[in-house]
């Protein structure tokens, strides 16, 4: 687990040098505090179920993140704002320390979703 955290932190540090001209995801939801979500069982479960397609996306921000997270994972957050990178790191560390199996399942799903989106875009 420590290796995963180290790799993620290193990866995010490298991403801070992304070209400023790159099109970024909307910063509309950058104000959201990820700790308010991960530390609240009800909210955390709502977001997780939304992302895993086992429940509805209750809030507009959850739907936004669900659409963009798969690409963000695969592209190493290339289009993320600095705040999104920071928030993603906070979420990754929290899940790595508290619910690593859920985090692994979520990342696997995001990678599969991204592959499906690429296949759809290629056809």
From TrEMBL:
It comes from the Eukaryota. InterPro entries: A10/PebIII, OS_D_A10/PebIII_sf. Gene3D superfamilies: Insect odorant-binding protein A10/Ejaculatory bulb-specific protein 3. Coiled coil: none annotated. The keyword Transport does not apply. Keywords: Signal. Residues 1-20 form the signal peptide. This is Chemosensory protein. It comes from Odynerus spinipes.
């Amino acid at each position: 687990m420590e290796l995963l955290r180290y790799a993620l932190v290193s990866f995010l540090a490298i991403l801070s040098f992304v070209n400023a001209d790159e099109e970024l995801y909307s910063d509309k939801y950058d104000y959201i505090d990820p700790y308010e979500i991960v530390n609240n069982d009800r909210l955390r479960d709502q977001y997780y179920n939304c992302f895993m397609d086992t429940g509805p996306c209750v809030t507009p921000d959850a739907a936004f993140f669900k659409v963009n997270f798969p690409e963000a994972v695969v592209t190493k957050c290339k289009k993320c704002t600095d705040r999104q990178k920071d928030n993603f790191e906070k979420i990754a560390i929290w899940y790595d320390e508290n619910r690593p199996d859920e985090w692994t399942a979520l990342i696997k799903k995001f990678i599969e979703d991204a592959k499906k989106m690429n296949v759809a875009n290629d056809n």
